[in-house]
Specification:
- This protein is an alpha+beta fold and about 220 residues long.
- It has one domain: Beta Polymerase, domain 2, CATH 3.30.460.
- About 40% of the residues lie in helices and about 25% in strands.
- The chain contains five helices and nine strands.
- The protein has helices spanning about 10-30, 75-95, 165-170, 175-190, 200-215; strands at about 1-5, 35-40, 50-55, 60-70, 100, 105-110, 120-130, 135-140, 150-155.
- Strands 2, 4, 5, 6, 7, 8 and 9 form a seven-stranded mixed sheet that branches. Strands 1-3 form a two-stranded antiparallel ribbon.
- A hairpin with a 2-residue loop joins β7 (about 120-130) and β8.
- α3 (about 165-170) packs across α5 (about 200-215) and α4 packs across α5.
- It starts with a strand and ends with a helix.
- The mean pLDDT is about 95.
Length: about 220
């Protein structure tokens, strides 16, 4: 079952280490004049949402949001994924990490652990998203088994319209603890049902919407 991590020293070190890697990636991409991006820990500033399943390794989920595509073109999903992966590998290698792995919806780093204190292994999951026509979209890599036939496409995240406004209203009315509780319940629901089609960003949006409609 999922639970929230309570070790504050571990959380601080975890977020500092992983966010430093991701910030280096953002700076490298933005300095390259290929595209302009931002990155956020899932929840986009919504703190205290880092979960762990029993004693398993911790995944820190980030979204790399594409603001503009100068050279590649937003519809060239293959070129976008390959470019981001190459840049990510370069940053990881510069920091002593191995290359990341490409899955359907995220780039995943190797497992790491700290030499001192809490030694719970951790990794970074990096999703690529964009905002278009009022909705958030996730870049999906549909693997066919033959690389040249693989499909890349933007998949709408359901019910993501006006997400930031809903978050602001929830926080303004001191209902964030309700989001945390709902988020955890949903993660455990999908875990119990062996549903692997709901990554953290999707679960987060579902939790925000459920709390919003329940109260407003």
């Amino acid at each position: 079952m999922y639970h929230y991590i309570e070790d504050k020293q571990y959380l601080k070190k975890l977020k500092s280490t992983c966010s430093d890697i991701i910030n280096q990636l953002v700076q490298a991409i933005n300095n390259d004049d290929i595209m302009r991006v931002e990155a956020h820990l899932v929840g986009s500033g919504a703190k205290n949402l880092i979960t762990q399943n029993a004693n398993e390794p911790v995944d820190l989920d980030y979204n790399l949001c594409i603001i503009d595509c100068y050279e590649i073109g937003i519809n060239n999903g293959r070129a976008i994924k390959e470019y981001v992966q190459n840049m990510f590998d370069e940053i990881l290698n510069n920091n002593g990490w191995r290359d990341c792995k490409d899955s359907t919806s995220v780039l995943t780093t190797e497992l790491r652990e700290f030499t001192h204190g809490n030694k719970t292994p951790f990794s970074i999951d990096l999703g690529i998203i964009t905002y278009s026509q009022g909705n958030w979209k996730r870049l999906i890599h549909n693997k066919t088994g033959i690389v040249r036939y693989d499909e890349y496409y933007w998949n709408d995240v359901p019910h993501s319209r006006a997400l930031n406004k809903r978050i602001e209203k929830i926080k303004a009315t001191n209902l964030w603890l309700e989001v945390r509780s709902t988020y955890l319940d949903k993660k455990n629901f999908y875990l119990h049902n062996q549903d692997h089609n709901h990554p953290s960003f999707v679960v987060f949006i579902e939790a925000v919407n459920e709390v919003y409609y329940r109260n407003f």
